[in-house]
């Protein structure tokens, strides 16, 4: 496994090995901010299964933080991350510094998430998805992947990336990997380390809420009834400060209500103590057609 820190090293002739199978995609990329956990490693394993070469990027992107303190305290554990990645057969880790990714300082030209960046996560974290898309776009250009793997846990981010790739004709297939959870149901997140034991117990209500909505939908509930099931679960834990609980269109991230039928993302975001967590489930409202 090679660990490189500059774009010139990333473009070096040793990066792309001979293809091991003529009909497989040549290169997959997994983009991370480090502090790796089993959720990230699931992305890497999926990439390793799908492509001849796997590149993992590790970069704490300042553009997607709306709080300077949050940026400063975000865990940076490159050595530990590389120790987790090497046994999985990763070919290259690209771990650039901020000056390498943004050599002129904050970029003048950025990617806008448009309407996707104005609702739900975008509304609560202004500019966040613009920052995500800007760095994803840049890292895609630098790594030149055939496939890019993202976790379903960040549902609105996944929608935004897919939309960018489609609208800008980037020629990369975006692959979603299901949310990885601890045995108690909590969605894995690098931010979970900030939870105290009592807060972690409180945080379980987020997964319980989205699973309640999914169970209701599978039992035949309409959209409003499924969301109400999630709301009832959240009401059992008043110590959790809710940002939003909503049903999202899985393609546009627009809010859904009324007589909607079809696939929906039931998403929740909340603060548990000082830690902001998100979770979601993809479910279906109404019967399959045809």
Report on the structure:
The model has no long low-confidence stretch (mean pLDDT 93). Helix 7 (128-143) crosses helix 8 and helix 9 (197-218) runs antiparallel to helix 10 (223-234). The chain has ten helices and nine strands. The protein has helices at 7-10, 38-50, 68-73, 78-85, 98-101, 121-124, 128-143, 155-167, 197-218, 223-234, and strands at residues 2-4, 27-32, 53-58, 92-94, 147-151, 173-177, 241-248, 262-272, 275-285. The protein is globular and about 55 Å long.
The CATH first-level class of the largest domain comes to: Alpha Beta
Order of helices and strands: EHEHEHHEHHHEHEHHEEE
What oligomeric state do the depicted chains represent? Answer: single chain
What is the number of beta strands?
Answer: 9
The fraction of residues in strands falls at: 15-25%
Query: Uncertain regions: pLDDT < 50 for 5+ in a row?
Result: none
Distance between the termini: 48 Å
Strand order of the largest sheet: 1-4-3-2-5-6
Number of helices in the DSSP assignment: 10
CATH topology of the largest domain: Rossmann fold
């Amino acid at each position: 496994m090679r660990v490189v820190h500059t774009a010139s090293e990333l473009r070096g002739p040793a990066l792309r090995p001979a293809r091991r199978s003529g009909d497989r995609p040549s290169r997959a990329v997994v983009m991370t901010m480090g502090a790796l956990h089993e959720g990230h490693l699931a992305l890497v394993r999926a990439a390793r299964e799908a492509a001849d070469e796997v590149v993992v990027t590790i970069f704490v992107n300042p553009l997607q933080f709306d709080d300077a303190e949050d940026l400063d305290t975000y865990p940076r554990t490159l050595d530990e991350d590389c120790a987790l990645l090497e046994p999985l057969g990763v070919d290259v880790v690209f771990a650039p510094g901020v000056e390498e990714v943004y050599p002129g300082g904050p970029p003048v030209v950025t990617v806008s998430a448009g309407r996707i960046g104005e609702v739900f996560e975008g509304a609560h974290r202004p500019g966040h998805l613009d920052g995500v898309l800007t760095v994803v776009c840049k890292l895609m250009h630098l790594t030149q992947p055939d496939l890019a793997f993202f976790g379903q846990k960040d549902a609105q981010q996944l929608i935004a990336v897919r939309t960018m790739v489609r609208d800008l004709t980037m020629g990369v297939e975006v692959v979603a990997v299901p949310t990885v959870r601890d045995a108690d149901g909590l969605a894995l997140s690098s931010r979970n380390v900030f939870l105290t034991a009592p807060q972690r117990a409180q945080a379980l209500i987020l997964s319980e809420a989205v699973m309640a909505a999914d169970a209701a939908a599978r039992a035949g509930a309409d959209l409003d009834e499924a969301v109400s099931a999630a709301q009832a679960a959240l009401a059992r834990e008043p110590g959790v400060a809710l940002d939003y609980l909503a049903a999202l269109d899985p393609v546009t991230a627009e809010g859904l209500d009324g007589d909607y039928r079809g696939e929906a993302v039931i998403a929740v975001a909340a603060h548990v103590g000082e830690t902001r967590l998100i979770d979601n489930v993809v479910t279906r409202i109404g019967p399959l057609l045809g």
